[in-house]
Amino acid sequence: AVVVVRPCVWETTLESCAARFRTRQEVAGWDYALERTVELFGRELRSSTRLTNHGTRPLRLEWFAHPFFPPGPEGLADLE
After folding, report:
1. Is the dihedral angle over the CA atoms 64, 66, 69, 75 positive or is it negative?
2. What is the torsion angle, in degrees rounded to the nearest 10, for the CA atoms of residue 1, residue 72, residue 70 and residue 33?
3. Beta-ladder partners of 52
4. CB atoms within 10 A of CB 23
5. Is the pLDDT score of 68 beyond 60?
6. pTM over 0.70
7. Distance between alpha carbon 47 and the CA centroid of its chain, in Å?
8. Where on the phi/psi map is residue 42: left (φ > 0), alpha (ψ -120 to 50), or beta?
9. How far are the Cα atoms of 31, 42, 69 from residue 63, in angstroms, in the given order?
10. pLDDT at position 7, please?
11. Percent of the chain beyond pLDDT 90?
12. CA-to-CA distance for 58 and 19, rounded, in angstroms?
């Protein structure tokens, strides 16, 4: 099991209609870069995530829409 001992450091770039968040981590044989982009196109909000594996170990990404409501077994937040 991997234990988080310190949060990752994010590089934040703000543009007129977008925000980009980037980080790069190496730990316990994993090496990855993660980029999260939120953009406004007219009245539409677009969100994208890019995970790049720079290491040799396989990665699994779990991204929660909100840290207090992780998805349950069906993929929806379990609020009970």
Report:
1. negative
2. 50
3. 33
4. 15
5. no
6. no
7. 11
8. left
9. 18, 26, 11
10. 80
11. 46
12. 28
Instruction: Report pLDDT digits (tens) over 30-47.
Output: 899 999 999 999 999 998
Tokens standing for residue 54: 């720079």
Q: Locate 79 and state its tokens.
A: 């609020």
b/e sequence 27-66, b meaning 16+ C-beta within 10 Å = eeeebbebbbbeeeeeeeeeeeeeeeeeeeeeeeeeeeee
Q: How far apart are CA 80 and CA 74, in angstroms?
A: 14
CA separation for the pair 65, 46 (Å, rounded): 14
Residue length of the chain: 80
- For residue 80, what pLDDT band results from cuts at 50, 70 and 90? very low
